[in-house]
Amino acid sequence: MSEYKDIWVFVEQREQKLMNVSLEILGEARRLADKKGVKACAVLVGYEVKGLAEELIKYGADVVYVIDHLLLKNYTTDAYTKVICDLANSLKPEVILYGATYVGRDLAPRIAARMRTGLTADCTALDIDENGLLLQIRPAFGGNLIATIICPERRPQMATIRPGVMKKALIDEGRRGEVIEIKPVIEEKDIRTEIISIIKEARQKVNLEEADIIVSGGRGVGGPEGFKLIEELAEVLGGVVGASRAAVEAGWISSDHQVGQTGKTVRPKLYIACGISGAIQHIAGMGGAKTIVAINKNPDAPIFKIADYGIVGDLFKVIPALIEEIKEAKKKAMA
Amino acid sequence: MDIIVCIKQVPDTSEVKIDPVTKTLIREGVPSIINPEDKNALEEAIRIKEKYGGKVTVITMGPQQAEEALREALAMGADEAYLLSDKAFAGADTCATAKTLATMIKKLEYDLVFCGRQAIDGDTAQVGPQLAEQLGIPQVTYVKEIKIEGDSLIVKRILEDGYEVIKVKMPVLLTATKELNTPRYPSIKGIFEAYREKEVKIVTASELGIDPQEVGLKGSPTRVIATTTPETERAGEIFTGNVKECVQNLVQRLVEKHLI
Amino acid sequence: MDFSFTREQEMVRKVVREFAEKEIMPRAKEIDRTGEFPWDNVKKMANADMMGIPYPKEYGGAGGDYISYIITVEEISRACAATGVILSAHTSLACFPIFQWGTKEQKEKYLVPLARGEKLGAFALTEPNAGTDAAGIQTTATLEGDHYVLNGCKIFITNGGAADVYIVFAKTDKSQGAKGISAFIVEKGFPGFSIGKIEEKMGIRGSRAAELVFEDCIVPKENLLGKEGEGFKIAMVTLDGGRIGIGAQALGIAQAALDEVTKYVKERQQFGRPIGKFQGLQWYIAEMATKVSAARHLVYYAAWRKENNLSYSMEAAMAKLFASETAMEVTTKAVQIFGGYGYTKDYPVERLMRDAKITEIYEGTSEVQKMVIASNILKM
């Protein structure tokens, strides 16, 4: 087992653009590699993608393996599994990390089965224990539990990583690394699926019940104009707009936005209640939200009793400031 | 057309609660259900059977109680059911589970193998592809539409920003998403038939002819070494005063919790 | 002694509950508001083979047991009591007499489409001047060659107007009391049969309670159900079974109220804590739960006796009496616990209270049930 070394990241590119999640994982791989004193390597698969290798080095890769072939232009399970397994079998990485994307979650288990090793899905944190093993940390049972998982006896240790949770390394223009081109052994007959077409499609607007983020307005929003502000905040967060019964009955917004006893029951990850006092009918519909934020003028409003975070203040001042701050934070994260 | 559907009995996670003292799952009183996307897989298999003829076989690996899930599948319209049940299978990770299922499926005739995209208790989405590899057949995951053309399928596979259309020859393994269809309710008549006229065959490790070292906890490359509960108490931090400071504090908390 | 349901029955409950919560419950409030007949629910129940559960497959039924049918009525009623009574009246009062007394031809012609849910059934006994005193009906049937001619009218007929097939009771011999009554299978389109007033009701507003009018209505001779003069017996035995169905409906309503209360007292805060922490309310809930449980035992005991071909007339009456009074009591308490909110239409408990009341009245009032019970005990 000691022959296995280095931490690999399977790098996803779509139409010769690197996916953010791959850079995030690379940042984490860099941190783990430093902790173990090994190399962080990127495995870049595709067609005419060599030009992306330098960028990966700037984001923390010591080595970039470029597997370039016409048959690898679009992702197929068979082709990608074969070339990565071939490479891993010859170079023996200790760890391979993948993004938990529609590609990564198709590919990684196929590779794990072929290499007869373990795999942990959708990790939200990673670490190295005192024996040098990879600690793979992930939520289970609908987020009710957090499990730490190891793969003690088989190699490579493999995990898919949830997009958006790891931090990209700061870009270092001066960083040097090695780019190694790999000649894959791949033929058309190895690929048993045929991609007929790839269709881009805007995700249809998520409904309230399925939304991860909901920004809701109540009586305190004051009128239909106020809901423009709510919409703006929802947009910045990538969420959808909800409303209390009071706002719906006042005619400020249509009833399909209503959350509560007579409206919809929602369980988003983040629920921001703006100008909502927190009547029991409303709480019946949103009390299951993972994180609740309340913005209200009245410090005694019952909504603060069930909130994780609250801001006491005028929502017409708080929300614009909040929008600015979120934009700032997002800019920082992109940089 | 012979179709095999792998299902899993799961606790209804929307009703799972954590004991605040012991920090463990409270399973008591939590209903067991067929994993929702496995139901989409089963529904699609039954629809294909209804249109093209053939047989739908459901398989699950689990304790004796998982028979209930198989009976429900039979009530929905499946024809045969296998319960892979043995102490040796306990504690399996996705790799060992796929191994066990594959050993059973290799004994059966099939054109199609269906799984649900992922189970709501584990959310791994791994058993499908691992099983396909063990069976040596191609896979298409995240399926939202299926058309049959002769001995091939035309399948729509979901991507982050759209979908791809894939042609693949049978036999093939597909993982079903909830976009694929709306599962039917088992009919009442179907329930009576499932209990009175159909059979759930129970298969043990030795009947499967599988090495106990390769299944269950022993056959699992991964180990769960710790479980903890996430913060469930509401933090209840209320900011007052200067608006700018308030929003900075709030955004910082939300970023820390990966909500932004 | 064994109090447990079979695994098959447990599965029926699980499936029907999920069906009822997802398909029926979300529409209950709207159906109550508009009073529309829930055809969509009837179709969905038909698709799920719920319209002929205890009848053999050869007659279009699901080939199931009576207890599974009662479970289904309970679970559907828990979601929407109006839909529950449509199912119960159809299965217990229309399908049952054809199954029990019908000829082979009558079963094939009428029971098969009814049990499949392709047609809806109703039971017509009550008249303006014959409610509790059912033997006093005035509708007449006169044999004229190959057909009977029916004259008279029926009121408060559940599924009236919506149903395709009616079991109608009429006097073939006016000189006799109960023994002069006969039962007929009447189709919706028979000449001389029309629907009169449709009642505006306090509860179960989605179900129909209609007047049926027979003016020289022509009913073929072969549509006589059983023999001439057997009608009263057919009605009474049918109602014995119907009462288990209504008991199950009442039980469903009571359970719904208890479920609502259980949820509410954990959510509602007063004096800084959930009101469920107050002993006063805990005692209410304990009493409610105990009564609901007692009602459940009576209802399923009666169903079990029927399933096992034991006498069940008295047990059915006891089940209906106790379950309906429990439903009334529990729903009224539920409104009280909800306070001002309970009196509004934001919460379902006021609807449950209005729905509960009818279960003490139809298919024999509570007073009739006591008559049945007392006569079984005293045998005087």
TrEMBL record, chain A:
Record GO terms (molecular function): electron transfer activity; flavin adenine dinucleotide binding
Co-factor note (free text): Binds 1 FAD per dimer.
Source species: Caldanaerobacter subterraneus
Gene3D superfamilies (UniProt xref): HUPs, TPP-binding domain
Domain (Electron transfer flavoprotein alpha/beta-subunit N-terminal): residue spans on this chain: 7-195
Keyword Transport listed: yes
Cofactor requirements of the protein: FAD
Identification of the protein by name: Electron transfer flavoprotein alpha subunit apoprotein
Amino acids binding FAD: 219, 244-245, 258-262, 275-282, 296
One Pfam family cited in the UniProt record for this chain: ETF_alpha
Family: Belongs to the ETF alpha-subunit/FixB family.
Superkingdom of origin: Bacteria
UniProtKB/TrEMBL annotation, chain B:
Requisite cofactors: AMP
Similarity comment: family membership: Belongs to the ETF beta-subunit/FixA family.
Lineage top rank: taxon: Bacteria
GO molecular function, one term: electron transfer activity
SMART domains listed in its UniProt record: ETF
Protein name, per record: Electron transfer flavoprotein small subunit
Source species of the chain: Caldanaerobacter subterraneus
PANTHER family named among the record's database cross-references: ELECTRON TRANSFER FLAVOPROTEIN BETA-SUBUNIT, PROTEIN FIXA
Gene3D superfamilies: HUPs (3.40.50.620)
Ranges annotated as spanning the membrane: none
Signal sequence, renumbered to the chain: none
Annotated CDD domains: ETF_beta
Domain Electron transfer flavoprotein alpha/beta-subunit N-terminal: 22-212
From TrEMBL, chain C:
Acyl-CoA dehydrogenase/oxidase C-terminal domain sequence ranges: 229-377
Cofactor: FAD
GO molecular function terms noted in the UniProt entry: acyl-CoA dehydrogenase activity; flavin adenine dinucleotide binding
Keyword vocabulary terms for this entry: FAD, Flavoprotein, Oxidoreductase
Pfam family, one: Acyl-CoA_dh_N
Domain Acyl-CoA oxidase/dehydrogenase middle, first and last residues per copy: 122-217
Residues forming coiled coils: none
Domain Acyl-CoA dehydrogenase/oxidase N-terminal: 6-118
Protein family according to the UniProt entry: Belongs to the acyl-CoA dehydrogenase family.
Name by which UniProt lists this protein: Acyl-CoA dehydrogenase
Organism (species): Caldanaerobacter subterraneus
